[in-house]
Structure formats: C-alpha cells, structure tokens
Amino acid sequence: MEKEIIIEYKPNTDTLVKVSKYLLLRMRFVKFIIFIFFFVLLQNIALSATQSVTNIKWDFFDLLPFGMVILVWITVYFLTMYSIKKNILKNKKNLESQKITITKDSFTQEAESFKIENFWKESFQIKETKDWFLIYLNKTSALPIIKEDLKENQYNELKQLFNSIDIKKSLKS
Questions:
Q1: Radius of gyration, alpha carbons of the chain
Q2: Strands of 5-9's sheet in order across
Q3: Where would I find the beta strands (DSSP E) of the chain?
Q4: Which pLDDT does position 78 carry in this prediction?
Q5: Which of 26, 97, 121, 158 is at 20 to 30 A from 46, Cα to Cα?
Q6: What Å distances lie between residue 22 and 16, 28, 135, CA to CA?
C-alpha cells in the first residue's frame, strides 16, 4: 500500500511574501547584483578613507553619493516587496484553503477553484528551511509547506517520504 500524506493548508499573504523574498534573494543574478553593489560601495568607502587621511574634513557632499546609493537600494527593495505582495493578492487562488496530497510518485494541490497534480520526476528539488519545506517546481518557483501547520507526526513522515524520492533534496538532519 502506498503511503499518502494529506496537509490542510491555508496560505496567508505574509508567508507567501516571505517565501517569495527567500526565493528572490537566492537567485544567481540577484546575488551577483548585491555582490557588485557591496563591492562598489566598499571600494568607494576605501577610496574616501584614503583621501580623508590627507583631508580630515568631512563634508555633507562627501557623504551624498553613499546616501543616494543606499536610498536607491532601499527604494528598490520596498518597491519589489510591494510588487510581490500586490501580485499575490491579485491572484485569489493564492489565498484559497488548499489540500496538499503527497505520495511517493506525485503531489497534488487541490482547492475550490483548481486541482494541480505534479510528478516528482518533473520537479526540480526539495529544500528544507527553518520554517518550510519548499518543493521547487522549477529553479525559480516553489510550493511552501509550512512546518508550523503540520499535524502530529507529519514532519517525520514527510522527511521519510522525501528521503525515499529520487530527486535533488536538501533536508536538515
């Protein structure tokens, strides 16, 4: 007999935004952009520090470029988070109560307005974080299973099932 794990899941906006932010910050090009930003920032700080040895007087205009760069990055961050939240709220399917059925061969998301079956062989990977199991459908999108919402022994059952599936995984010991 094949084991089946059923998880009742009521998504909320905050969790979906956190998962989206987590996925976004782990994308290669985002990491590259953040690395370049900090490299240029540190280079400018070092250049300013060496120049200030001879000229100790700091002026408002010396700090203006740093302030502008930081302001631009803060604005980009908050606009991105706003956009993510807006997109999540726009699709009402995101917030429907769902039943996720996980078997050795597939997992099914079922709600009032949709039913989607995904096969493990078509999925990218499974990753465990502190708060979630993320089932990556591809490199950039994932279905979160919130550990806090798991009942009784479902956490151990899920780990055991995930370990038996032939898919790339990163599970905690």
A1: 22
A2: 5-9, 98-102, 106-110, 115-119
A3: 5-9, 98-102, 106-110, 115-119, 125-128, 132-136, 142-146, 168-170
A4: 92
A5: 26
A6: 10, 12, 13
What's the mean pLDDT when you consider all of the chain? 84
DSSP single-letter state for residue 118: E
Both tokens assigned to 97: 């109560």
Cα–Cα distance between 123 and 111 in angstroms, integer?
20
CA distance 39 to 52: 20
This prediction has a pTM of 0.75
Q: Which residues contact 89 (CB under 8 A, 6 or more apart)?
A: 13, 95
CB atoms < 10 A from the CB of 74, how many? Answer: 10
Consecutive H or E run containing 173? none
- As a whole number, mean pLDDT of residues 52-73 equals 69
